[in-house]
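Table S4 entry, Glycine zipper 2TM domain-containing protein.
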Amino acid sequence: MKSLLLTSLTLFTFFFSNLANADYDRNKAVPVEQVLFGTVISARNVSQEELIQDKNSGWKTFGGALIGGAIGNQFGGGSGRDIATVLGAVIGGKMANNRSQDKTVVIHLVELMIEVDCAEQQCQQYMVIQDYDSQMVFHHQDAVRMVYLANGNVRIDKQF
């Protein structure tokens, strides 16, 4: 199960890593290679879950074991103290490990089917997935422009 999740996350990251770079910074000019105008045939909001691993979980577990061992060392005497120290370290490490579990982040995307305006040629349709922007919600029959940026990314915006 974990290998399937890891494989799907790797593929998702590979295919959608350029989407996050499609946005450009404020007050920055970006070269444009081509602009196509078209109409939205369909728009669908989709979401993708991404697993975020805690990179510090090993250190947190070690710290929890260290603190638990120090607390366990305060109890008993002789071999009882040794057992209390080991138990404290195990319990402290386990508690720290449970608190530093991986988190799931939901990424919101929009999938657009666009038919490009055609003049004396066959109309083409494009499927584009990009980051969801609540300020730019797409609907059926919206007039849009498909902007091809010089870095290889594509961005869909409404025509105004």
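The first strand starts at residue 32 and ends at 52.
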